[in-house]
Amino acid sequence: MYKWDLVNLKIHIGKIIQLYRLRKELSQFQLGLEVGMSRDHIGRIERGQTNPTIENIVKISDFLNIDILTFFTELNHDDLSSINEEIKTLKEQKHK
Given 5, 10, 14, 70, which is the most exposed site by the fewest CB atoms within 10 A? Predict the structure, then answer.
């Protein structure tokens, strides 16, 4: 059975949320408005600096159409690298 590292799990959840938010071309502020959270709180979740509640994970996953199991699927180094690369690309496209 896989043993979760809580720090890595928070980062993993944050990266998944950030990726799906950027795919929908939403700002942290816009996502926050839709799910009843502040932009700052969304940012802290995306950076893995806070523990999102189950309630907040459900609200965000429902709005962004993320299968909640995605948050709890083990990612290897290549998976995380791929996610980070897509996030970087989406951010660059946004600033053009």
Answer: 5
Task: Determine the Cα–Cα distance for residues 4 and 12; give it in Å rounded to an integer.
Answer: 11
Give the global pTM: 0.91
Report the distance separating Cα 27 and Cα 76, nearest Å: 27
Q: Cβ atoms within 10 A of the Cβ of 61, count?
A: 20
Contact indicator for 6, 50 with CB cutoff of 8 Å = no
Give residue-wise pLDDT tens across range 80-96: 899 999 999 999 987 76
Structure tokens at 16: 């998944």
CA–CA separation, 7 and 86 (whole Å): 22
Question: Among 1.10.287.130, 1.10.60.30, 3.90.1720.10, 1.10.260.40, what is the CATH number of 6-94?
Answer: 1.10.260.40
